[in-house]
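Why does residue order matter? Because the sequence determines the fold. Keep that principle in mind as you read this record.
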Amino acid sequence: MAAEVFSYHRNGRNTATIWAVLAVWGVLLLAIIWVDAALWLMGIVAAFTLPALWDLWANPAAGLSFDDQGMTWFSAKRSASLRWSEVDHMRLDTRLDFSVRATAVLNTGQKIRLPYEATPPHQAFENALHAGGIKTQRHHFSLIG
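Structure:
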């Protein structure tokens, strides 16, 4: 494998989350003003934005990097690493919601799922794995990985 290092990093705070929360709260406010929606009902709907608000406030970081020796990843307070000598192949599963989940399949048959938030965009990740000589398997629209 080449000595190049692949690195990916992301933050929990991003513009898509900000706009989504603002849009939901705006629609709820309009429903209260124009339709005279029940405040308790709009409060319940607004509660579904609390995880997004937490991500905006806490801004948890996540990422993944690898070199010719192995791979490391982190997500909020969790982190792990694998040596390439332990890995048989990387499995990339496209789910029904079009998200791609990455799993390291070890030589022993054990599977280690990478945290979704630490997984890079699938095409760049797969290209970097191929460039490094790591075998990959693609599985599209699988329900169980």
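Strands lie at 6-11, 61-66, 70-75, 78-83, 87-94, 100-106, 111-113, 136-140.
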